[in-house]
Amino acid sequence: MMESLTDDMADQALEIINEINSTHGGMTSYVESGLAKLRIEESATRKQGRIDSGEEVVVGVNKYRVDSTPDDEDDVRTIDGNRTLEAQIAKIRAIKSSRDDAAAHCALRKLGESAALDRSTADPDDPMNLLALSIDAMRARCTLGEVTDALAEVWGRHTPRTDVVRGAYSAGFQTSDAELQSVVEDIGRFEREEGRRPRLLVAKMGQDGHDRGAKVIASGFSDFGYDVDVGPLFQTPSEVALQALDADVHAIGVSSQAAGHRALLPQLRDQLREYGATHVVVVAGGVIPPKDYHFLMEQERCCDAVFGPGTRVIDAAREVLGLIRDKRRDVQEKDNGV
Length: 338
Fold this sequence. Notes:
By secondary structure, the chain is α/β, with parallel strands linked by helices. It folds into 2 domains: 81-155, no CATH class; 170-335, Rossmann fold. It is built from 13 helices and 5 strands. It has a 5-stranded parallel sheet, sandwiched between helices. β1, α9 and β2 (227-230) form a beta-alpha-beta unit. It is globular, with a radius of gyration of 24 Å.
């Protein structure tokens, strides 16, 4: 049995490799086209659909779950994002003030010269070997940002595709699934009432480079009938707020995987207030400990709901639609002086 399963996996992998080489010109161009990332996201979205529909069982996630208590959260470390940011800024300033600036700038210049060459520098004995020059730059106490900026000046920066996979999430449900149809019909009803579909911006803020979960959410919501915008990685709260206003979204869904939610969500709240966009619903999801829910929703009042690990996408879509309706009702009553 194990040999057969291994053979099946190897055969399927080889089929993909052959397709990449014969149709797309190899892995480098396949990655550059964004298709590699899209295929991975499609697979992840299909899997999430199977889990949420109950077709695929994950013990502790969609079956045999154990509800946590506040005591279970005592050993979860809480990160003070603002204090961490201040400490990191102070550290970088201290490094820059104590290093040999001439040596640092020389190392960065060499990096740029190597990046601009039209030949390979992969030979470890090549004096322009990019990896060796990067190590030299680090020894000269150049920061990671300075090293990447030196290369970006020559190569530019990679902009990942923001395509949303369609149909993959709903494929995990039976076509006649009453639950799925109920959500789709409810969103259709919203469109008829409001003249447009509910619109969601899926955002990633701060130094959080994990976007697969965010793309799964975007794909799932799209399958239900939402209009979905996907923001780029590493946005600031101000950039997210401006994008939300430009796209005239009903809601912002913040995906947090790197413990930045305690600092970034209050900043997003402040930016939305500054831009007069308090009518926008803000929800958060990802790796957020339950003990932070009260901090975000009650103490800081910077988001309307938190969807922790194990939340079904279909449940989140239904709840977000309800929050949008509630917020719009509040705005209308305020406008009417109620």
